[in-house]
Design brief:
This protein has three domains: about 10-140, Sandwich (Jelly Rolls); about 145-240, Serralysin-like metalloprotease, C-terminal (Alkaline Protease, subunit P, domain 1), CATH 2.150.10; about 245-380, no CATH class. It is built from eleven helices and 22 strands. The protein starts with 9 loop residues before the first helix and ends in a 13-residue tail after the last helix. Helix 3 packs across helix 4 (about 260-270) and helix 6 crosses helix 7 (about 305-310). The chain has a six-stranded mixed sheet, with no helix packed on it. It has a five-stranded antiparallel sheet with strand order 2-9-4-7-6, with no helix packed on it. A five-stranded mixed sheet has the order 11-13-15-19-20, with no helix packed on it. The protein is α/β, with parallel strands linked by helices.
């Protein structure tokens, strides 16, 4: 249970209750209307230098667990929570528990009130003379219910969760993981794994030290570990930003290659190879090993039978075909990169006549450009 902050005095509480923004709250949040862990209520408002804090009434039930998030495109936001008498409550700031908060967002996690009633959520911003801007806040009630566990195999699997809380373990292979409603925990295991989410509204994504948290309006808060790709409504998010360099044949990601090829990593550590790059250039590209997360030789050959025939005859490698011909012909390097869509979205890339996959890996990912799946049916 969460109690009052022991350093907050009666005078502090009295001063808080005297604030006009306290006496006239800027809205009401009512979480818990749904039982699937979704964000059940949200609202927006504005802050200015004449009113740098808004108070929002929120009804909470004793013993239940709640998560809060604020976000703004205009300024730095800060969240805190008070009881109805103006006393600051103890709470966990998500940034202290592995959640990466951007400069303009803040989170409160695992808040468990010790009594039922109306609390006040305070959203403020860093004072800058002349500032004005908009913010959004949302609250999710975390349900308490049985957890369902789904395990994959050492092969490529497509795994589905339930409408409750699920633990989904991909284990080996390149897996496609669907959680559904509830607060789900995904562990992709080895291979190149993707979590696919279909949701209403927007998603809040925090990534820190290999773990990603995703909060959406319809599917709750999901936790992802050992997952390389996150697909939300068809948009692809590469969770570990690619670090590519140009080598003979195309772009190459050393970290990715060694993580996906333990035999190569062991050879490098033992001193038999100088790097994963050396292995890829000499052997890996001819063995069908993938150079980075967005090229999948198995997918490329299965969707391009003519290329598969040429590869089987030793005329070319799948990787070299895409580099020399495939992207110009509108072929997709994996299920997670739609070549034609990228060129349609970004006329500057098309006009430059450059490989769209290379552009995304070198520039587009850092610029926040959108990548979509080749086809949702490819993920099923």
């Amino acid at each position: 249970m969460t109690g009052r902050n022991p350093y907050w005095t009666d005078l502090d509480a009295s001063d808080t209750r005297a604030l006009e923004s306290w006496r006239f709250p800027d809205g009401t949040l009512v979480p818990g209307a749904q039982n699937n862990g979704s964000i059940s209520d949200s609202l927006g408002g504005t802050l200015t230098t004449s009113e740098i804090t808004d108070f929002i009434s929120v009804y909470l039930t004793a013993g239940e667990t709640y998560n809060f998030v604020s976000v703004s495109s205009d300024y730095t936001t800060r969240l805190s929570i008070y009881d109805n008498q103006g006393y600051l409550m103890d709470f966990k700031d998500g940034g202290d528990y592995g959640i990466v908060e951007s400069a303009r967002s803040d989170t409160i996690i695992d808040f468990v009130p010790n009594s039922s009633g109306t609390y006040k959520l305070a959203v403020g911003f860093q004072y800058v003379p002349g500032s004005f801007g908009y913010y959004g806040v949302a609250v999710a009630q975390v349900p308490t219910q049985a957890t369902n566990t789904v395990n994959g195999t050492a092969q490529a699997d497509t795994l589905y969760g339930t409408t409750g809380d699920d633990v989904i373990n991909g284990l080996g292979g390149d897996d496609i993981l669907y959680g559904g409603q509830g607060n789900d925990k995904f562990d992709g295991g080895s291979g190149i794994d993707a979590v696919v989410i279909a949701t209403t509204g927007t998603a809040t994504i925090f990534t820190d030290k290999g773990t990603t948290r995703v909060t959406t309006a319809s599917e709750g808060t999901d936790t992802l570990t050992n997952v390389e790709l996150l697909v939300i409504n068809g948009r692809v998010n590469v969770l570990d930003a690619p670090h590519v360099k140009r080598v003979e044949g195309g772009l190459f990601d050393e970290n990715f290659y060694r993580q996906q090829n333990p035999d190569v990593d062991a050879a490098v550590k033992a001193g038999f190879l100088a790097s994963g790059e050396e292995h890829f250039v000499k052997y890996g590209r001819f063995e069908g090993r993938d150079p980075h997360v967005l090229f999948d030789e198995d997918y490329y050959l299965s969707t391009n039978k003519d290329v598969a025939d040429a590869v089987n005859k030793g005329q070319i490698t799948a990787w070299q075909h895409f580099q020399d011909y495939g992207w110009r012909e509108g072929r997709d390097p994996s299920a997670f990169f739609d070549t034609s869509d990228y060129l349609t979205r970004y006329g500057d890339v098309k006009a430059a006549g450059v490989n769209p996959l290379d552009h995304y890996l070198i520039f587009g990912e850092a610029e926040g450009r959108i990548v979509t799946v080749s086809s949702l049916s490819d993920l099923i």
